[in-house]
Amino acid sequence: MIDPNYIYSINQSVDVYRIGDDILEFYFINSRRRVTLKVTLSVIDIISTLNEKDTILEICRKNSVEFSTDVEVFLNYLLEENIIYCVTRREKEKSILSDSDIKRYDRQLNYFDSVFQKPSYEIQKRLQNEVVLILGAGSMGSGIAIQLIMSGIRKLILVDKDEVTFDSLQRHFSFKISDVGRSKVDALKDYLKSIDNNLVCETYQELVDYDTSLDKWLDKSSFVINTLDEPYIGITSLKVGRVCYEKKIPMFVAGGFDAHLMSTGELVIPDKTPCVDCYTSYFSETLKDWKPQYNISAIPDTEILKNRFEVGGLPSMSLFSVSYAVMTILNYFASDIAGAFGRGELLLDQLEINYLNITKNPNCLTCGSV
C-alpha cells in the first residue's frame, strides 16, 4: 500500500510516454510489456515529479494537488504493477546484501524488480542461501553450474564419476586442455571459484547407480538438479526423484531425453507438480510401441550389442538447454512456482518449442493421494 509519507520513484526499467493530453504509456524494457492509462493532468504532474527525494505528500503540495482517494488508488495500482517502487522501503531492504553484491548484481536486481512481486534483494539473498546439488558435470551439469554461480548461488555440491577427456572440450564451457585427465568435478570447481571466490563447493568423484545412497548429499541440499544420463536420464531421475519426494526437495531434470537435442527439462516440486513417477507412467504409455530404429545393415550381428551409436550436437545446442534450465530454476527461486511449461524440445527447423502436456496422475502410487 502507498504510504504518502514515503518516497517513490519510477522503476529503472520502465519508460514513460505521454500521448496527447491525457494518456500515459508505461513500457517495461525487460519484458516488453505495455500499460496504457487515461489520466488527469494532476496525475501527470505527480508522475513527472517523482524524483527519489520528495515524499508523495511533498510532491502533491508542490503541484497543488490534493492527496485524494483517487490519487491513492491510482498510485497503488502503479505500485502493484511494478511501475513505481518505494525508495524508502528499498533502502531498508538493501541492508540484507553487501555493497559489493549490490554492485555486482545490479542488472539482475533490476530485472527481478520488473518481473517479480517479491523484492529483488530478498530473491538475491535466497540465491545465496540455497544449497544446490548437481548430479552430473557434463555439458548440461557444468553449464547450469556456471550460470547459477554467475546468478549468485554460493553453495554447491557436485557429483560425477568421470574425468575430463579431449572430446569434452567440444561440449563443455569450463574445461581447458590442461584439465584433460582431471576429475570433472574438481576442474569445474576451480572454474566456478574463478567466477566467485565466495563459493562454497563440495565435490565427489563417485558413480551414482541403483545401490548408491543419496542421503549424504540430499540431507544438506535444498534443491537438486539431475543431469545423469547413464544409463538414461529417465532411470536416474526416477531414483533421485523418489528420494527427493520423500524429503520434499524440488528437483530439476535436465539431459538428453533419448538423445533429443535442445530439450527443455521439467521442474518437479513435491505435492505441487507431476512427480517423476507421473512422468514415467506417461512415457511408458505413450512410447509403449516405440522401438529405436538404427541403420545397422552394415554391422555384423555379433557387433550389434556394442555401443556404436552416438548422437551428434553443437555446443550452442547444449547452451540453449542450459539457459532454459537456469531461467526456470531462477523463476522458481523468485516465485516458488514451477512455471507454465515442462518437458519439451526446440524444433530447430521450425524455431518453436514443442511442449508435452503432462499432468499429475491421480492413480500415481507416489503422489496420487495428494
Main sheet characteristics: 6 strands, mixed
The geometry reads as elongated
- Domain unit count: 2
Q: Please identify the structural class as seen in this structure.
A: alpha/beta
The number of helical elements comes to 14
Tell me the β content: 15-25%
Count of strand segments:
14
Q: Give me the oligomer status.
A: single chain
Fourth-level CATH superfamily of the largest domain:
NAD(P)-binding Rossmann-like Domain
- What CATH calls the topology of the largest domain is Rossmann fold
Q: Compute the separation of the termini in Å.
A: 36 Å
Low-confidence stretches: 293-299, 301-308
Write down the Rg: 25 Å
Order of helices and strands: EEEEHHHEHHHHEHEHHEHEHEEEHHEE
Mean pLDDT: 89
- Strand sequence of the main sheet, in spatial order? 8-7-6-9-10-12
Named CATH architecture of the largest domain? 3-Layer(aba) Sandwich
Task: Summarize the amount of helix as a percent range.
Answer: 25-40%
- Name the CATH class of the largest domain: Alpha Beta
Walk me through what this model shows:
The protein is 38% helix and 15% strand. The protein has 370 residues and is α/β, with parallel strands linked by helices. The protein has two domains: 8-90; 130-289 and 299-355, NAD(P)-binding Rossmann-like Domain (Rossmann fold). The strands form four sheets. A six-stranded mixed sheet has the order 8-7-6-9-10-12, sandwiched between helices. Helix 8 (139-151) links the parallel strand 6 and strand 7.
